[in-house]
Every structure is written in structure tokens, then in C-alpha cells.
């Protein structure tokens, strides 16, 4: 069985797929190893980030805090401005991941919080004619795991 951390990222990726479909965007990529091409934009990128050291150990239960980033890569086309696309992505992603009805991400997490958001970067590439925009949003997830059992959420 996958670690609680991976299970949480799988749930986040599913939520981002729902956002992608609702926005009519083209791509969700998790930890992409290749550059995102114009033919894949508008795209949502999930960066797995890392785990901080366990906060505490109580009764064989470790409290963890995991950081991850969601990146937006958009391209202006059909009259849509990069600023508007980035804003729509930010709102949809925040609404999906911070939904009070599922703040525990399917009972895997204690909670999820939004962290820092980068300023938007908008412009043309060195050899590109089209305007692109990028922005990232940080998130933190608190979760419990049993000591010595990273695959099962603790009560």
C-alpha cells in the first residue's frame, strides 16, 4: 500500500483533474520532468514538495506536515488574458482543495491550508510570439501516521 503522503497527493491530483475539466484546460502534470509545451497549456502542475520533520509522537502516532506546490502555466489565446486565466485557476484550485466539506481529503488528513502564492509572471519567451503567465500556490497538509507504518492514517 502507498504511504499516507502519496495517498494524499493522489487525492489532490484527482481534485486538480476536476478543476482542469471545469476550466476547460488541457493538462494536469505531477512532478513533470519535461517542459510544458504551448500545445499542453493551459496547465496545472503538482509539485510533490516535501515532508517536514514529524511535529510530535504521541501514543505511537506521528503528526506530519507536508508541503506541496500547485503551479499554473497559461497562454493567452482567443482573447483570454493571462491575468484572468491565472486568477480563474487560483480561485478554482483554492475552492477545490480548501472545500470545507472535504478539508480532510477523504479522511486522510487532519487539515489543509493554503500557504504563500508567488506573484504572477507574465511575458513572452525569448523566441515566442505568444504571451504566457505562470504562478504557484503553496499548500500545507497536516496528517497523522502510525509510528513505523507510513501507509495507514492514524486515528
Radius of gyration, Cα only, in angstroms?
A: 17 Å
The name of the CATH architecture is: 2-Layer Sandwich
Indicate the CATH topology: STM4215-like
What is the CATH superfamily label? Phage tail protein-like
Q: Summarize the main sheet.
A: 8 strands, mixed
**Number of individual domains:** 1
Give the beta-strand count: 8
**What is the helix fraction of residues, given as a range?**
10-25%
Give the percentage of residues in beta strands: 35-45%
- End-to-end separation in angstroms reads 18 Å
The chain-level structural class is alpha+beta
What is the global morphology?
A: elongated
- Uncertain spans, ≥5 residues at pLDDT below 50? none
Q: Secondary-structure element order, as H and E?
A: HEEEEHEEEE
CATH class, please?
A: Alpha Beta
Task: Report mean pLDDT, rounded to a whole number.
Answer: 87
Continuous helix count: 2
What does this structure look like?
The chain is of the alpha+beta class. The chain has a single domain, classed as 2-Layer Sandwich (STM4215-like), CATH 3.30.2000. The chain contains two helices and eight strands, in the order αββββαββββ. The chain has helices spanning 4-23, 82-97; strands at 27-30, 43-51, 56-58, 61-75, 111-117, 121-124, 131-146, 149-153. Strands 1, 2, 3, 4, 5, 6, 7 and 8 form an eight-stranded mixed β-sheet that branches. Strand 6 and strand 7 form a beta hairpin. Helix 1 (4-23) packs across helix 2. The longest helix has 20 residues, at 4-23. It is elongated, with a radius of gyration of 17 Å. The protein starts with a helix and ends with a strand. The mean pLDDT is 87.
Amino acid at each position: 500500500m502507498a504511504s499516507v503522503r502519496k495517498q494524499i497527493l493522489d487525492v489532490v491530483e484527482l481534485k486538480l483533474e476536476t478543476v482542469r475539466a471545469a476550466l476547460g484546460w488541457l493538462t494536469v502534470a505531477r512532478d513533470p520532468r519535461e517542459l510544458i509545451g504551448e500545445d499542453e497549456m493551459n496547465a496545472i502542475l503538482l509539485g510533490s514538495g516535501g515532508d517536514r520533520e514529524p511535529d510530535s509522537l504521541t501514543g505511537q502516532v506521528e503528526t506530519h506536515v507536508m508541503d506541496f506546490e500547485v503551479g499554473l502555466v497559461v497562454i493567452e489565446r482567443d482573447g483570454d488574458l493571462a491575468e484572468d486565466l491565472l486568477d480563474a485557476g487560483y480561485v478554482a484550485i483554492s475552492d477545490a482543495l480548501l472545500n470545507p466539506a472535504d478539508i480532510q481529503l477523504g479522511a486522510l488528513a487532519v487539515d489543509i491550508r493554503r500557504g504563500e502564492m508567488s506573484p504572477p509572471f507574465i511575458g513572452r519567451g525569448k523566441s515566442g510570439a505568444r504571451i504566457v503567465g505562470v504562478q504557484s500556490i503553496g499548500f500545507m497538509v497536516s496528517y497523522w501516521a502510525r509510528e513505523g507504518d507510513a501507509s495507514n492514517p492514524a486515528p
